Amino acid sequence: RARAAFRIWGRLDFGERREQMLRVRDLMLDRTDDVVARVCDETGKTPFEALFTELFITADLIDFYARHGDKTLRPQRVNSGPMRLTKRSFKVYEPLGVVAVISPWNYPFSLTMSPVVSALFAGNTVVLKPSEVTPLVGVLVGELFDKGCDYPDVVQVVTGGGGAGSALIGAGVEKVCFTGSVATGKKVMAKAAETLTPVTLELGGKDPMIVLDDADIERAASGAVWGAFSNSGQTCIAIERAYVEAGVYDAFVDKVVAKARAIRQGTSNDDVGSMTFPPQLELVERHLADAVDKGAKVLTGGRRRKDLGDMWFEPTVLVDVDHSMAIMRDETFGPVLPIVKVADEAEALRLANDSPYGLSSSVWTKSDDRGRRVAGQLEAGNVCVNDCLISYGVSGLPFGGAKESGVGRTHGIEGLTDMCRVKAVVEDRFGLKRELQWYPVPPGGYGLLKRVTKLLYRRGAANKLRALLKG
What we know:
The protein is of the alpha/beta class. The protein has three domains: 216 residues, Aldehyde Dehydrogenase, Chain A, domain 1, CATH 3.40.605.10; 189 residues, Aldehyde Dehydrogenase, Chain A, domain 2; 38 residues, no CATH class. It is 44% helix and 17% strand. Helix 2 packs across helix 6, helix 3 crosses helix 4 and helix 9 crosses helix 10. The longest helix is centred in the N-terminal third of the chain and has 27 residues. The protein is globular.
């Protein structure tokens, strides 16, 4: 059905696809409370957090592609180099066909809609396999396209576990978009490699925060608390490590602990909701136990809130941590912030880059020059200066990781062209009887071509003249 739908959808002009996507957005906005409620029911998020991180960000991404997609996907003239006198060259962006989207449970609406929206704007159709932890949000995504789009079957939804995802990858799709853990991402890539199916992988992170000695400590502490504990830390770009220069370390830690203790939990009007997936909460507890056994100190939090329910965990701040601990090496994906005192900027950078992950990062300083210098040395796909996480919310920026944190990009024009086949087209302008390189090779052709090559590519006017005269 998705392939049959592609034969129609893929031939529509961009203006018609844009109109259909805006209609789906209109329906999504009409059903804002339904979307938010579905997300909260399956994840434990607060309504405010669900509205901002799931629906608002999705609405803005659709707006970005509606405004910029047409220009991005138009055929683009390319300089034909030394052949420009007789040739016209273009890049042409064509849809791939059917795109498989395998989406996660931590942001089950926005991290589903991002690849779905990009694929559809580019002219593809989609088969969506939502996480088995949050399947009903995926079903809701399918409903929005069924009811909001005039063209049937452009988004198909299949539910199930890992077996369903593996079967989908092997079903002859033209591309796979996966968001999830590094371990599962490697399995997705291996399965896709059997048919040389291209992949976009948005995988895990162990994102560092660097606080320099000239930072605004009040802002940095507030950012650390939001960046570490938003969505109970179940965010691939959450702050999972903080490296703080010695001169401001004590003040920073004091402020972070005070702000963490002030976070409200327990009702829909509070700051932070519950965790979502029981095995993830158990992993958080294992990481904490390992750290404490090796000498870490818990300054606040560190326990389940059993008075609130099985999935609630306190925002937790740790010190006296080092890279021998799992909590500093492996993705924790929970409401835990370990803080490390460092001697200087160089040590902060060394430790921040001492990780197989490279998704996001942040640096905090009052100096623009210093911030940009440190940002340029962080081994990550995304860097924020004096902010955190928000790079994902800038729809015009490409999003993706370095090292083991992923392959490819979503968002931005790169996220749109990533859903296309880029075709090279060269047109002859004059229809001459022959080309220089065609058979038969002309008498003296080698000498002539040697002169032309040196004339074009030798450096300096004297060298070019010498090439013209002597070959």
